[in-house]
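User: I'm new to structure prediction. If I give you an amino acid sequence, what do you actually give back? Let's try with this one:
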Amino acid sequence: MSGPGAHGAVGGSSIASRGLLLRWGLPRDPGASTTLAGFLVSGVATVMITRAFLAATGYPQLGGQGLHIAHVLWGGLGMTVAVVLLLTFIGPAIRPLAAVIGGIGFGLFIDEIGKFVTDDNDYFFRPTAALIYLVVVALMLLGEALNGRVPHRPSEYLAAAADQAVAGLPGGFTPHARAHARRLLQRGAGEPGATELGAVLEVVDEDHSEAPNPVATVSAWVVRASRRAVGARYVPGVTVTVLLLSTALGVLRGLVEWHALGLAWWVAAGMLGGTAVSTALAVAGLVVVRRDRHVAYQRFRRAVMVSLLVTQFFVFIVEQFTAVWGLLVDLAVLMLVEAELSQLEQPDDHPIRVAKGRPTAF
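Assistant: Good question. You get back a string of structure tokens that encode the predicted 3D arrangement of the chain. For your 362 residues, that looks like this:
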């Protein structure tokens, strides 16, 4: 038997066995982690730039005659513009730009959290930095839970390829965009509609005009720099040394400040406990790095994550925004570790597999 009826029956049976989100038409975007990272990086950078600018200019106020236009309003405007863009345009091209605009708005919004958790609208509320850090970490963990815990299904890759086709049909494909769509389609092979979508991708016209993608541009630069760095033999030792020194210095400064301020005991316990666990994991990775590089870097990653999720939070409580330097070091170490893990987890014939200690292609 052939025809639409038979094909529909097969498709219906397949769909009935899928999860509720997919049946509701809510596939996850395989590129969502990168876009979310762009949103969070834009937000954190906005907070730091805003604080630095206000401190350098003496905390000026926009308004007068009893009016004060707080930058939380500009933050709300930025997030609104991002939502309007996402509701107006279809396809993937608008998401990176909306992520950056929304991230800037989020940064301006969350920077004023101190005013809304204190009865005297205290912008300089001491735990503000820790609260902002906690919100960012919570969003990061939410993104990881949605996109990193459960592997994407073939049908989600197929939906992502169709999403690329949405952008290509009216405006054409650049060679890079077509290759990306083909890779997504390949991972959705065997799903109903994959053959038909493949034919659509091939008939889309070629065009070399592409919407600006600030998230992909920065991400690609970071990936290239990280992959070049991880090829050297001394990288594991340097990585662990930098992580431990940075953490130790941050905690030492924090303990001095903690003692001077007379803060609660659990703040110091959190800093010391997080440092102890990070150190143990990092040393455990060094012990096995020559024997099993993959296991070693998994332990390095856990060490950095403990520092990011536990130690740095308590350091931010004590040091406020000066703790950002330790955070930047942790993030740099995490990028190196993730770059090495991504290469170790690639198949031997993958184009970015390391050969003789150097990446062969990017």
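You can read the tokens as a compact description of the fold. Here is one thing that stands out. The first helix runs from residue 4 to 16.
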